[in-house]
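The protein record now logged underneath.
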Amino acid sequence: MYHVILGNRAEKDLKKLDERFREKVIKNLRMLKIEPFLGEKMMGEFKNSYRIKIPPLRIIYTPDFKNKIIWVRAIGFRGEVYR
């Protein structure tokens, strides 16, 4: 089982979300503890990261397989999360 850690930005992003979106995000974060390959591998600037799509939201995370940690970098709407 992996340990999920929210970065500062991800914590702020989660607090800003509407309750209906927040519940979906938290559910997916819990699933990440068990299955770190839940998301899709990203390319380019984020080549070591993965993303989970929860329309219209995205969760961007970077797994550390050696230490069994998942670092959640950002949570947000599709147009804003990649900035």
